[in-house]
Amino acid sequence: MPRLSEIQDLISGTNLTPELDPTQINITGGYAGDMLSDVMSSAKSGQAWITIMKHLNIVAVASLVEIPAIILAKSNIPEAAVLQKANAEKICILSSPRDTFTISGILYKLLNPDY
Amino acid sequence: MQWFTADLHIHSVLSPCGGLEMSPQNLITQVKKKGIDWMALTDHNSLANCPAYATVAEREGVYFTWGVEVQTSEEIHLLIYFDSSEKGKKFGELLYNSLLPIDNNPDFFGDQVIIDENENILQMEPKALINSSIWNLNTTVETAMKYGGFCVPAHIDAEVNSIISQLGFIPDNPEFNLFSITARANTELLISRYPSLKGKSFLRASDAHYLSDVGSGTSKILVKEPSAYELAQAALKAEGRKIVV
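^ inputs. structure came back:
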């Protein structure tokens, strides 16, 4: 099971929630999506969520689904209030310059090395 | 014709993220205190609390319109107003069955309370109302029109769940004549960014989830009577009717 820090290195990710340590977060899978209702109904606990959405509701949905990490594609950076909430909810937010497709591919390969 | 001070986007205790303080008597008392004489109840994806709030509003002398704030499959919030409570109820049943099957999690979104006019709790709504219908924008509008509903895109200047935030633009179809805006919205700025809004009518409303928000956004509406039909006519500026935000 990869640590979030391994993923962070592969996608040139910046940890926007420095109170949370990516070496201590295990990632069981991934989900990519920009529709809250879709993520609410289909993402699974333990997955990293790749999205371009950066408003406060992403933290609520991640918290509800028990997603430990949100990866913001295309260098998206949320407002400070979102990061504060994420810190409080213990949801690590990484920002990567790569797009959703590329991050998904990298994460998929990491999770399925034999594919 | 007559001027009304209207707040046509208000939530009740049924709406997730809403306060339990929004009981019928509390809400209508606050509406009156804010000088609002025409209100609409627009809970997320449900009209189940309209009967209780309509009864108290009538008793207190506040004009009341049945409404709902639908979340379409594109996650656009669309306000729909009904003059016929029977048709509103029927639309509400169809809408309920179109919602994605996700249970409400009260720890996150609060309880969703269906209440009567005496503030007895009739039921806790188990389905998550902060959620989407499987209907897209077109299907929602078509279905609403079959039941006499008048559709108004909600808080179009908001960063989330507005027709602009979800689509990136305002589509030609379905055509809307009235666009709801937040308490703080600047209509001139909106028109300059989205020129297709030129000549359209705007409806400012509070989108209140808590008592303190009620009346933070209102519109002055000149119509023959406070109804969804007259609101639609005012959006078209028919025969001198108008909406001032």
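Chain B has a mean pLDDT of 96. The interface with chain A takes residues 71, 75, 100-102, 105, 108, 128, 131-132, 159-160 of chain B (CB under 8 Å).
thumbs up if we can close this ticket
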